[in-house]
Design a protein that fits this description.
alpha/beta, six-stranded mixed sheet, 8 helices, rod-shaped
């Protein structure tokens, strides 16, 4: 009976001390973001394009996991309750946008301004850090016509809010295993490798293997795009130590996928060196002999007089 009581007490203590599954999970950090209504430069603010762009921007920000978009109605209520209507007309002023963020408890404020000529439109976006009280990042969004591409809007939002996720992938296929893959001078993988995430832009790729020639290529990485390249390595000449190691084998030396026959005896270094030395000695002896004959021909001989 006493043993059962002790076991029950131990189980109760374990339930008290051990965290519940909800407590064990680390709460994800979430940042509050305000998207200021877009303004325009030489464009009708009530145009369908501006409305579509504002809607797409808001939808894209809400889709980001670590960021929560504050409803415009909540921002307007906070401005009205504080009786500071000027905060609704900041026009890109950093100090004003910072005050708006502090008033509403936001972490970041996104300000945007659209302008252009004809069908070519450019949207200037900037991210203001409320705690820092300054611009953190700026970017542009370009499009033509009245249709705004959602993927272009997503790329602009990622550049502002999470630049580390503004990447594409590089898929390198190498025809040999164990090759080292370098990007911009840093080793990132060995073949065979999974797709490699890289920031958007141009990169220098080098694939190297001790038994093959290097493969070098420049690639352009686009956002959320997979760029495949195939590295067909060309074989290096086999070094003398490998030939000596396999010269008595009946089977050819295999490097990678290619079979390489050992170097024949008449092309070995010692054969070439021996022939060269013999030729040099023969030339020296012949030169000395010819020089002696020439000296004898020019030598004067005294003939005794009777």
């Amino acid at each position: 009976m006493r043993a059962h009581a002790l076991a029950a007490l131990a189980s109760l203590l374990m339930l008290t001390v051990s965290p519940t599954p909800v407590q064990a999970q680390k709460k994800a950090t979430s940042y509050q973001v305000i998207l200021v209504p877009l303004s325009s430069l030489g464009t009708d603010a009530a145009s369908a394009t501006l409305k579509e762009l504002s809607s797409t921007l808001a939808k894209t920000v809400r889709a980001q996991r670590q960021f929560k978009l504050m409803p415009p109605a909540a921002v307007d209520r906070a401005i009205g309750a504080a009786k500071q209507p000027q905060l609704g007309r900041c026009d890109g002023n950093v100090a004003c946008l910072t005050k708006l963020g502090l008033l509403t408890g936001a972490d970041y404020v996104i300000f945007g301004e659209m302008g252009g000529l004809g069908d070519a439109q450019v949207v200037y976006l900037k991210l203001v850090g409320v705690k820092a009280g300054k611009d953190l990042r700026t970017t542009t969004l370009e499009f033509e016509g009245k249709r705004v591409r959602p993927d272009a809007v997503e790329a602009a939002v990622i550049r502002l809010l999470a630049p580390s996720r503004y990447v594409g992938t590089l898929a390198v296929q190498v025809d040999v295993s164990g090759a080292s893959i370098y990007v911009d001078g840093d080793k990132v993988a060995e073949s065979p490798s999974k797709p490699i995430p890289l920031r958007v832009g141009s990169h220098a790729v080098r694939v190297t293997h001790p038994e093959f020639r290097d493969f070098v290529r420049f690639v352009d990485i686009d956002f959320k795009q997979r760029v495949p390249i195939r590295a067909n390595l060309q074989q290096f000449p086999i070094v003398a130590s490998q030939i000596r190691k396999h010269r008595d084998d009946s089977k050819p030396l295999v490097v990678g996928k290619a079979a390489v026959e050992p170097t024949p005896w008449y092309r070995q270094w010692y054969t070439v060196a021996g022939v060269g030395t013999a030729a040099f000695v023969t030339s020296a002896v012949l030169f000395a002999y010819l020089n002696q004959l020439d000296s004898d021909a020019k030598r004067s001989v005294d003939i005794p007089q009777p």
